[in-house]
Design goal:
The chain is of the alpha+beta class. 36% of the residues are buried. The structure holds adenosine-5'-diphosphate (ADP) and magnesium ion.
Length: 623
């Protein structure tokens, strides 16, 4: 039971802090919570309308008025055709993208996308103002936050937000930033198919091992994801789809049909935006009607428009077949047969179309999960995840990814990443290292977390020494370092010398002690310092190579100085001295120059001596 109090100053109800789940969709967005009394995942709906439409789905559309103020949702959707230049839809498609990324689809957007610098992140121009996709998504999130606060009568400051499984780092980070800009602390970004599975209770049993296909057909995008759940951890085995295929294409197909069957006049439509808009809306109504009935008929601007179900199914058959092709590819990528799928989850408003359900059921050869509203499942799952994070569901799963990269320090103070950030846990990784000095008996293993190239800028998590390595020449020992993160986020680092079997390990808790703000700072540092890091890394590497060359030359001289001329010895000593000196300076190019110089001096006699050695080894032997 949630505690409820009254704020004496404002008279408003003060409930225990609530974390909401948000489905930030391309077409529609919505918020869900776990109801404090019933403990059921519940979509937040406006009960009194507020003049904003009483539905739960908030169209992800923003209309900017001349004054610069914005309206979001149903009201904005009305301007899609009437005022296309100032009405932004599908902002999600632009998240984390440069103009080059979307060039092929530039015609899709009826608003102005800036192409001046095609390499950098896109911006949208409205009037004389510029908005990044992060700004735009934050406007939608702010609206959702306000609506939730209005309904719940309590501040909403924390959220779990969903993203498609195929979103990359930049897109996830952009979503996180949009949340922050909207005044939300984003506790976690989770995958939409994972959320949908959670809504169906899949994965909530810790001992469950399941393989799930999540088929998501929304307004403008389609994706299929194959998930594997083991011990409450979701892993995306594969994902496929088409980011320009969805219910909007069904609407367009209906409009085209009305035109080709002379129920609508193309020239009239094209010359009159408001006719176009009403025809488009009629087509969407027709589609929805045909999800329930056999026939649709309406009057629009004095014209009778009609279509029946079988005609509609003929129109979309090709589109649906394309989604099934993606399903085949996803199965292939996951290395699975259809029979190995334990459950199919239907997501997205367009899966309400009976033909879609039938096609998917037929393809997988089994019943699909469709008992929940397909356009609500993602938000419901996000609410379940939010509740788990709030600690109300402690015995449930801990889905997680590593927020920062984990690695060890290698010579020159360089960070060698073993587990990159955003890896799903549990996970493991191993790599081999070797000794730098002859007879080296111990090796210091320093574990770091962070994105910078030099460990000194990252955070040290642990350090231990692998001792008892048996004496051998430098470079011969084979030390395998392995990192393992279990489902609870505990990192174990193990070092083992493979020739002798000497072994040492240590347990580290990577996440603890780092706040979200720390993580964000470390990430943004890694971006701002990228340039200087590259230089520092280059300097570090040049130094390492220089030291290595000095060592090998020394060893060579110890064995072979008798075979060198006096002049060769003198030149070599000079070149070594110069290289040694350059290592103490901060100039990478100088080191490289001295490195090359020493190489050039030693190469001729090294080759000569090698040849002599080979010749003497061959003496007396016949081939
Ligand atoms: P997104 O995930 O892209 O934001 P949704 O999952 O909300 O989108 O799906 C929106 C799409 O679902 C729209 O194309 C809408 O017309 C379609 N849709 C909603 N309800 C129905 C229905 N009853 N029958 C057919 N299509 C529907
Ligand atoms: Mg969706």
């Amino acid at each position: 039971m949630a505690k409820i109090g009254i704020n004496i100053a404002t008279g408003s109800l003060q409930k225990e802090e609530m974390i909401v789940g948000i489905d930030l969709g391309t077409t529609n967005s919505l918020i869900a919570i776990i109801h404090p009394e019933s403990r059921e995942a519940t979509i937040l709906k406006e009960v009194d309308g507020m003049g904003k439409g009483a539905g739960a789905l908030v169209p992800s559309v923003i209309h900017f008025q001349e004054t610069g103020s914005a309206e979001v949702g149903e009201l904005a959707k009305d301007y899609l055709v009437a005022d296309p230049g100032n009405t932004i839809f599908s902002a999600k498609r632009l998240m984390g993208k440069s103009f080059n990324d979307i060039r092929d689809h530039a015609g899709f957007f009826s608003y102005k996308i800036i192409d001046e610098n095609p390499e950098s992140l896109v911006k949208v121009q409205v009037g004389n103002k510029f908005y990044s996709p992060i700004d735009l998504s934050s406007i939608i999130l702010k609206e959702l936050k306000q609506r939730a606060e209005h309904i719940l009568k309590t501040p909403v400051n924390k959220a779990v937000i969903t993203v498609p499984a195929y979103f990359n780092d930049a897109q996830r980070q952009a979503t996180r930033d949009a949340g922050k800009l909207a005044g939300l602390e984003v506790l976690r970004i989770i995958n939409e198919p994972t959320a949908a599975s959670l809504a169906y209770g899949l994965g909530l049993d810790r001992n469950e091992q399941k393989t799930i296909a999540v088929y998501d057909l929304g307004g403008g995008t389609f994706d299929i994801s194959i998930l594997r759940i083991t011990d409450g951890v979701f892993e995306v085995l594969s994902t496929h789809g088409d980011t320009y295929l969805g219910g909007d294409d069904f609407d367009r197909a209906i409009m085209d049909y009305w035109v080709s069957s002379n129920q609508l006049d193309a020239t009239e439509l094209n010359s009159n935006p408001s006719d176009m808009q009403s025809a488009r809306l009629a087509a969407e109504r027709a589609k929805k009607q045909l999800s329930k009935g056999e026939h649709f008929e309406t009057m629009v601007d004095g014209r009778r428009l009609s279509i029946d179900k079988s005609t509609f199914e003929g129109l979309i058959e090709g589109l649906i077949n394309r989604t099934l092709d993606s399903c085949k590819l996803a199965l292939k990528d996951a290395g699975l047969k259809i029979t190995e799928i334990d459950a199919i989850v239907m997501v997205g408003g367009s899966t309400r179309v009976p033909y879609v359900k039938k096609a998917v059921t037929g393809f997988f050869g089994r019943e699909v999960n469709d008992s929940l509203n397909p356009d609500e499942v993602v938000a419901l799952g996000a609410a379940i995840q939010a509740d788990i994070l709030a600690g109300n569901n402690r015995d449930f799963l801990l889905l997680d990814i590593t927020p920062l990269s984990l690695g060890i320090e290698t010579s020159g103070g360089l960070m060698d990443v073993l587990i990159p950030r955003n890896s799903k846990i549990p996970t493991r990784a191993a790599r081999q290292y070797t000794t730098q000095v002859d007879g080296q008996a111990g090796m210091r293993i320093s574990v770091f977390q962070g994105e910078r190239d030099l460990v000194q800028h990252n955070r040290k998590l642990a350090e231990f020494i692998l001792s008892g390595i048996p004496g051998m020449p430098a470079g011969l020992a084979k030390v395998e370092i392995s990192f393992m993160i279990d489902a609870d986020g505990i990192l174990t680092v193990r070092a083992k010398e493979l020739r002798s079997g000497v072994e040492q390990s240590i347990e580290v808790k990577p996440q603890y002690g780092l706040t979200d703000a720390d993580v964000e700072r470390m990430l943004s540092d890694s971006i701002t310092h990228a340039e200087s890091d590259i230089q520092a890394r280059a300097l570090g590497e040049a130094r390492n190579e220089g030291e290595q060359l000095l060592k090998t030359t020394e060893r060579f001289l110890q064995k072979n100085s008798a075979h060198l001329t006096h002049q060769e010895l003198l030149d070599t000593a000079h070149a070594m001295q110069a290289l040694q000196l350059s290592l103490t300076m901060e100039d990478k190019n100088l080191i490289l120059e001295k490195h090359t110089a020493l190489n050039e001096i030693s190469k001729p006699y090294a080759e000569r001596i090698m040849d002599e050695a080979v010749a003497s080894a061959m003496k007396g032997k016949s081939i």
